[in-house]
Design a protein that fits this description.
Shape: globular
Distance between the termini: 29 Å
Helix content: 40-55%
Strand content: 15-25%
Largest sheet: 8 strands, mixed, barrel
Mean pLDDT: 90
Length: 242
């Protein structure tokens, strides 16, 4: 029943995208947004993804949700590019589920979303968790390489919470690494070895020519610490809620 209700929600226009900015410390400006899905439920009100995405991932309805999110995010970013003509242009981050990564039609869906909306492929960033890649590394590698040939950006999301294998980071064509918020939260609170972990992740990513986004930034002290550590990009409630 929940699956049917969620599938109906897509056609009924009940899904919404909220956008959270990604800020460049060096440029002192917004350079990107992450698209985050919400469900405007007719009885329960606005629901966050934690309330319905895990249910969707238990069935193929996650593919329908993912398809809608991808196309709507591309449409919105293309509209902003036309309306505001930012220089340099902005990019949009879209999360992919493990089920989407295993979908043989994913590459074609991305290509079609870009074609229909007119968004330049280099303006799209697909965010993929470690767990979505590990276990199907050969298949994932093929998909990721196909996306990179299209000039789509690839982000390894929630880094540090999964396998964190250096071998797959070297093999897979990610351009950006996103440090999980659990490491950012303690940066200004004197919490254990967290700053050393963040410093190590930054050093490793930069040695692989990857940019680093720190997510979950909520306080000025965290911003100052991340600047001192040489982090490239920040995202979180300190700058804006989605």
């Amino acid at each position: 029943e929940v699956y049917q209700r969620l599938r109906h929600a897509i056609g009924a226009g009940e899904l919404r995208l909220h956008y959270q900015p990604v800020v460049s410390l060096r440029a002192q400006r917004i350079i990107a947004f992450e698209a985050l899905v919400r469900w405007q439920h007719p009885e329960r009100g606005l629901m966050g993804p934690a309330e319905f995405i895990p249910v969707a991932e238990e069935s193929d309805v996650i593919l329908d949700v993912g398809r809608w999110v991808l196309r709507e995010a591309c449409r919105q970013m293309a509209e902003w590019q036309r309306e505001f003509a930012p220089r340099p242009p902005l990019s949009i981050g879209v999360n992919l589920s493990a089920r989407q990564m295993n979908d043989p039609g994913l590459v074609d869906e991305v290509r079609e979303a870009l074609r229909v909306t007119g968004l330049a492929p280099e303006r799209l960033r697909l965010e993929i968790t470690e767990s979505s890649v590990i276990g199907n590394s050969d298949g994932a590698l093929e998909v990721l390489r196909a996306l990179r040939r299209m000039q789509v950006g690839l982000v390894i999301d929630d880094f540090g919470t999964g396998y964190s294998s250096l071998s797959y980071l070297q093999r897979l064509p990610f351009a950006t690494l996103k440090i999980d918020r659990s490491f950012v939260g303690e940066l200004d609170g004197g919490g254990g070895g967290t700053p050393e972990i963040v410093r190590a992740i930054l050093a490793m990513a930069h040695s692989l020519n990857m940019r680093v986004i720190a997510e979950g930034v909520e306080r000025r002290g965290q911003v100052q610490r991340l600047m001192a550590l040489g982090c490239d990009l920040l995202q979180g409630y300190y700058f804006s809620q989605p």
